[in-house]
Amino acid sequence: MTRFLIFAALLLAFVAWLFPHRLLVERVLIAPLRRHGIEVDIGRTRLSWPPGYELAPVRVRVGSLRLSLDSVRIGVGLARLRTIEVRACGGRVAVRLQRTPRSGPAARAEIEGIDPSSCIETGSLTLAGRFGAAIDARGLSWNQAAWPTGASASFRLDARDGHISGTLPAGSPGSGRPIGDWSFERLHAEGRAADHRLDIVRGVVRAQGLEWRADSVKIRIGASVASSQMEGSLLVRPLGNAPRAKAIMKLLPQASDTPGGWRHYRLAGTLASPRLFPVQAP
Q1: Which pTM does this prediction carry?
Q2: Could you tell me the sign of the dihedral formed by the alpha carbons of 236, 238, 243, 247, in that order?
Q3: Model pLDDT for residues 237-248, shown as the tens digit of each residue
Q4: CA 152, CA 154: separation in Å to the nearest integer?
Q5: Is the peptide bond preceding residue 57 cis, with omega within 30 degrees of 0?
Q6: What's the Cα-to-Cα distance from 69 to each of 93, 116, 180, rounded to whole Å?
């Protein structure tokens, strides 16, 4: 009996060693992405424990976007994926996949300590800082490139010591919108997404000596930034006497201050051309 167990163990190890794991990963995981225009290059593929595969390094290309990942670990269960863990951008992304009886495939993602500037190249936009997030999504589909009809997600985003500059992409090459050069100390946002709609339930940004607060901002996502409509409520107030904060407040439409020194605006227009309309205090 002992000899049989030893022989079986050696046979399994031999089969596992010779099995074309890279070919399996290419056909099952990478090929569907490539059919949707997502190019993925893998450095090496190896077995890992708990059962799964570790891919390292990984390079992803989607149009002008370039993404460099240190490693991707894929945990497998009975007949399907269970977990995905990504090490990149100085942090990690952990995704747990499951299937619910009512809404089908679901996923929870947790993002910790990501600095996009260290691993993402966009060509026209620079985004830096330390980002963390939690995302819960339902109604997903591995067979669709676009957001599936009926799918929904809720999210929480936190960032600190951030910087953004460059040009927002638009519908055609060379028609992006310059956004200037901005830094922020803190960013927090909570919301949900469903059916080409993004709702920011609450958002707070502290930047350039100002505090911005967004409430119930609704964004209808279109084919481009210029065709994406938005509306909601926006409040802003200075946090001190910084010269740049004073200059920005003078550039904003005049509005009466509310308790706490807030100016209240109604936000409308498109993502490419947002407009502020003063809300006068009663």
Answers
A1: 0.79
A2: positive
A3: 998 888 888 888
A4: 7
A5: yes
A6: 11, 11, 28
